[in-house]
Specification:
The chain has seven helices and six strands; from the N terminus they run H-E-H-E-E-H-H-H-E-E-H-E-H. It is α+β, with helices and mostly antiparallel strands and 149 residues long. The protein starts with a helix and ends with a helix.
Length: 149
């Protein structure tokens, strides 16, 4: 049994698609997070919303509990995040951790190109729910998984 399977309960992925965005490209960006063999297994709930000026926005979200997919996402994040982003995550860990979870925001444009960069505006949101809730335990787990340095 792999380390991430014993320490992570689930991973939520959510993102907004704006009317001005090409939905196929947004999904392609998000799919870079997932192991290729499981992309077709992941189903997003769709919620139609309105922006501040009445513009249509669609929220997509999914919860992943399948161990193989969790393992794949962790591998993608650990290999795809730069050393600088991993260091920044650790330095600002209090901003990314709440209760038993780690929150990571990834830039859509970079993800479309198969890269993962932290950002704050209009991100792909990744919520990793850990089985242990102590901050020290989450930091140790993230270091062991290669998400933090």
């Amino acid at each position: 049994m792999a380390l991430s399977q014993t320490l992570i309960s689930y991973i939520d992925v959510r993102f907004f698609a704006h009317a001005t965005e090409n939905l196929d490209k947004v999904f392609e960006a998000v799919h870079h997070l997932f192991p290729p063999d499981y992309v077709d297994d992941i189903v997003f709930k769709k919620n139609n919303l309105k922006g501040h000026y009445g513009n249509p926005i669609t929220l997509f979200e999914t919860r992943i509990k399948k161990k193989e997919i969790i393992e794949g996402i962790v591998k993608v994040l650990s290999s795809g995040l730069s050393k600088l982003d991993k260091e920044m995550l650790l330095r600002e860990i209090d901003l990314h951790v709440k209760k038993g979870s780690l929150y990571i925001r990834l830039e859509k444009q970079a993800a479309f190109q198969g890269e993962f960069k932290l950002c704050s505006a209009d991100p792909i949101r990744v919520h990793i729910r850990f089985k242990k809730s102590k901050l020290e335990d989450k930091i140790k787990t993230c270091k062991e998984l290669g998400i933090l340095l």
